[in-house]
Amino acid sequence: MALDSESFDILLATVQRFIRERLIPAENDLEEHDEVAAELVEAMKELGLFGLTVPEEYGGIGLSVSQEVQVNFELGRTAPAFRSVFGTNIGIGSQGILMDGTPEQKASYLPRVASGELIMSFALTEPDAGSDAASLKTRAELVTGSDGDHYVLNGTKRYFTNAPRAGAFTLMARTGGPGAPGVSSFIVPADLPGIQLGKKDKKMGQRGTMTCDVILDNVRVPAANIIGGEPGQGFKTAMKVLDRGRLNISAVACGIAQRVLDESTRYARERKQFGKALGEFQLIQAMLADSQAELLAGWALVREVAERFDRKPAQRSDPDVSMRVSCAKLFCTEMAGRVADRAVQIHGGAGYINEYPVERFYRDVRLLRLYEGTTQIQQLIIGRDLVGRA
C-alpha cells in the first residue's frame, strides 16, 4: 500500500504549504486558547489528513509507512496539537481495525475515519496499568440476552488522547485470565450509555491537545465489536499498533528537532553580543553542530526502519522490526529533548520566555519520551531482543 511517487510529492508539498501558511501562524493563538480552531480542523479534513493511512478502497489516501513518516516529519515542524487532531485517526485509533478487523468492521468504520466524520481514539493506559499494560483491570463480561451477545465493560482509562473529540474508541479490556492472553480489543462507540469523561488534563506542554480519563460503568458493547471477532487477541493488536505509532512519533521528534534547530540557527545569526553575531562564537557553533549531527542520524534511522516496516508482510509482527522501531523511538525522542535544551541555551534568557517558539517546544517535546512507550520500555524491548537471540 503506497501512493505513487508523483502524487505523493504533490501531497507532501501541499502539507508543507499548509503548515507554513496556516499552522505556524496559528501557533500563538493555539497556545493562548488551548484549542485548535474549528476552521483549521475543517481544512485538515479537506486536505485528506484524516485518511492518510486508510487504504484507497475505504476512501483514504493509503500511504506506506515510508511515506507516512515523511509527512509526520513535516508536521513535527509545528505545534504537536495540530497533528493530534487527526493523529489518532491515522494511527493508534484506527490501525487496530485496519490490521486485525473483520471485513465488516473495516467497511463500517474506515470510510468514516478517512473522511474525518468519525474521530477514533486508543484506550490502553489505566490508573494502575501504564508501562505494565498487560496488567490492565478494565473488565469485559460476556452476557447473553434477547438482543444477542454483549460484553459489559467496567473500568477507567487514563491519559486518553482525543477522548473529548472521539466518536469511537479502540479499547482494551480483560475478557479472560491474567496477563496479555486475557486482553481483547473492542470498538466502543463514545455515545454508549455508561461512558463518562473526566475533566480535561492540564499538561506541562502540548497545549491544544485533549486528554482526559474515561470511566466505563456497565457499558454494553455488542460482541461483534471485538476487533477481529476473536477474544484474547487484543494485546497483540495493541503491540502491532504501537509499533507503527512509535515509528511515527520518532518522525515527529525529528521534525520538531528540525524546527527548533532552524529557530536556533536564525537566532544565532541575528542576535549580537560582544560586537558580533552569536553564531560567530565557537561554543554556539558546537551546540548547533551537535544538534545537526544527531538530527541527521535520527532521521536516517527512522527512514531505514520505515523501509524495513514496508518490506515485512502486512499486518504481521516482526520482532526484528519491532526492536528497530524501539531503537528509533529511544534515540529520536531523547535526541529531540537534547536539541530543544540546546536551543533554549542558545537563546539564553529569551529561550525561557513564552514569546519565543523554543520555550514552547522545550515543554512540548518532553512528552515524546513518555507516551506510546517510555524510553525505559524501549530499552527493555531492545535489550530483551538482543539477549534472547540464538
Topology:
Blueprint lengths: L4 H19 L3 H7 L4 H10 L17 H11 L4 H11 L4 H6 L2 H13 L4 E4 L15 E7 L2 E14 L6 E7 L8 E7 L5 E3 L13 E12 L11 H37 L1 E2 L2 E2 L4 H30 L7 H29 L9 H8 L10 H14 L2
Parallel strand pairs: 1-4
Antiparallel strand pairs: 2-3, 3-7, 4-5, 6-7, 8-9
The number of domains:
3
CATH top level label of the largest domain? Mainly Alpha
How far do the termini sit from each other?
33 Å
Most strands sheet: 4 strands, antiparallel
- From the helix content, strand content and strand pairing, which structural class follows? alpha+beta
Note the beta-strand portion: 5-15%
Q: Estimate percent helicity.
A: 40-55%
Would you list the SSEs in sequence order as H and E?
A: HHHHHHHEEEEEEEHEEHHHH
Unreliably modeled segments: none
> Remind me, CATH topology of the largest domain?
Butyryl-CoA Dehydrogenase, subunit A, domain 3
CATH superfamily of the largest domain: Butyryl-CoA Dehydrogenase, subunit A, domain 3
Q: Write down how many β-strands occur, each being a DSSP E stretch of 2 or more residues.
A: 9
- The 3D shape can be described as globular
By DSSP (H or I, 4+ residues per run), the number of helices equals: 12
| Adjacency order of strands in the biggest sheet | 2-3-7-6
Overall pLDDT metric: 96
The CATH architecture of the largest domain: Up-down Bundle
Radius of gyration, taken over Cα atoms and rounded to an integer in Å: 21 Å
